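Notes to self after the call with IL:
- keep both proteins in one doc
- input above output, always
- annotate only the second one for now

Protein 1:
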Amino acid sequence: MRPLQSGLGPVERLLEENTDLAIGTIETLSGVLIFVGTLLLLYVVGRATVVPLANRLLKRRGLDDHARKPLLKLVWFVVVFLAIAVAFGAAGYGSFLSSLAVIAAAATLAVGFALQDVLKNFIAGVFIFSEKPFRIGDWIEWNDHEGVVEDISLRVTRVRTFDNELLTVPNTDLTNGVVKNPVAKEQLRVKFTFGISYDDDIDRASEIVVEEARAHDEILDDPEPSVRLTELGDSHVGLQSRIWIDQPSRSDFVKTRGEYVQAVKQRFDEEGIDIPYPHRTLTGGVDVVNVEG
């Protein structure tokens, strides 16, 4: 039996005691075994603990399956990368790990410049998934566009307009600007201004506006409908009605508002309340020449 070398690690000492390999070969084989063992151990631990924990945290945030899957893939990529880095360090490949880190940093910088728009949209997608300004099925409005969200990915969001056009919107357009989500809450307030003549009874017109709101099945009694005099126009007095509808959608909003406005118009006609149109008075003179011609 050959004498044991000093300064060897446990794995190297075990190989030296049970094999006839040269010291250089033992050191190489020991590094490989430590690398593989560490990588497998961290792989199993990450798969059993880190990924399930991340999945539970994302579920608590209320993210759907389609939103959780890409984020879990990102978490898994980070776990594998850290496992490889730790395994290289445990195996004593410090110089190789440093070189790999320099190469990875340079590659990351180059890819970052080439794909900066993609990366910006990716980060914006992560914010959309985490902050949830809107969900699939919501009706949203932004930059003179509106429609129903059909799909959300980490790069783009797809919105179906009310003309049945499909818009593919970069996520940065929805995070850098103002996005209106009328259906984010369970109730939506709808406003409409009725114009009546200056000669009509304001109190009676206000009563009709509120009565028709209370008579409509889709308009809530709590919060109760209200009406306020909001403007004195050139040819009309503006009465703004404020009503609330429950579990709103774009179709419900348009349907309920149209039925309500039509009902108020019919009552105004029955009560003799006028909805005037603008009048223009022209002044001045007209010169007529060459009449005989």
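Protein 2 (the one to annotate):
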Amino acid sequence: MSTATHSTKSPRQLYSMAKSLGIWDPAKIDLTEDTGHWQRLNREQREQLIKVCALFYEGEVSVSDTLAWFMLAVPELERRMFLSTQIFEEVKHAEFFERYFQEVCGTVDTTAYLVPEYKGVLLDELRQRGEAIGAALTNGKNGDLGLSLTLFAAHYMGVVEGVMALTGYEFFEDLLAKTGMFPRLLEGIKLIRADEGRHLVHGMDYLREQLEQHPEYAAPVRELFMREAANIPRRTDIIFTPNPLGLDRNRIQEISYANHAQRMREAGLA
């Protein structure tokens, strides 16, 4: 494992940034132009776009719910201060997609898109990791708590935010580049991505510090990362089968692998 020193921002610095940069309001984004663009898509194209938005929405709701476990369990006050802003921002991201469905796409049952390849990593397994933190907090087995926090950070910040969400943003970038449509969707994505940048800096710093202090955690974290790498082709296929919007499947999959490799390097596991 690498123990190289990394220059980054402290939780207090990230908290200060969130107070000034994370205050955009999803309710103030005018979606009128996107509503007109939606009418120009055929049924198959609409379905592909809804699929990605639904998975983002379900992921944002899930991380909003589960992050509270992590915030309650970390001992450092300044880290909890930053995490309180992260919970607020995750809820706000879910609000953006909820409003996008209501005003642009129409009524959508987002749970219908939670196929096993996504439901496990976004909901079930993440909830189980949060519950493991809660159990370690209440049963007095502090040795379990450190590993539970580390695995939660690897799963949440390393995989969900650091691989899946970052790759998903590129889908929306490609959509706008190819069609010239949905500028307000891209505006929301850019604002979400800026918030997530702070989340990712904090989460990966925490994960790296935990692995440096507890090298025995490296094996289960590496196993988690490698298992998720094996799922990348299957998850990509779900988004691009079919591909009526004509976006570049291979490019998106390559970006997913690149994000995965970058997160492992940041954790000191490469």
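Annotation: The radius of gyration is 19 Å. Confidence is low (pLDDT under 50) at residues 1-6.
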